[in-house]
Amino acid sequence: MLDRTTIVMPRPLKAKAVARARQQGISFGEFVRQAVEKQLAASLKSGSKKEKTEGKKTGDPFWDNLVTFTDDGPADLSTRIDDYLYGDDR
């Protein structure tokens, strides 16, 4: 059973994805599903989330601190979010 999901992406990115889906003869939705499945499979092959995110910086505080936002993250995250995102010496 499929679950409807809304995503937001830049128009140029969507245009490229729609064009690629047409080239492959599939719907845009199927293209997105396949892309997500491929990304998830690649992350399983490369190890745990912690290993994947260590040392890789994107410039975005959320993605750079992805380990902080996992289920096994700190219990006091909601009260100390700035400390975890930006460090204690602000």
How would you portray this structure in words?
There is one protein chain. The relative contact order is 0.07. α1 packs across α2 (28-45). The chain is 52% helix and 0% strand. The chain has 2 domains: 10-46; 47-90, no CATH class. The chain is elongated, with a radius of gyration of 17 Å. It is an all-alpha fold.
The percent range for helix content is 40-55%
* Tally of alpha and pi helices: 5
Q: Which range does the strand content fall in?
A: under 5%
Could you tell me the radius of gyration in angstroms?
17 Å
**Could you list the spans in which at least 5 consecutive residues all have pLDDT below 50?**
none
Mean pLDDT: 78
Q: What is the end-to-end distance?
A: 48 Å
Structural class based on helices, strands and sheet pairing? mainly alpha
Principal-axis shape = elongated
Whole-number count of domains:
2
Query: Which oligomerization state do the chains in this entry correspond to?
Result: single chain
Tell me about the largest β-sheet.
none
Q: Tell me the total number of β-strands.
A: 0
* H and E order: HHHHH
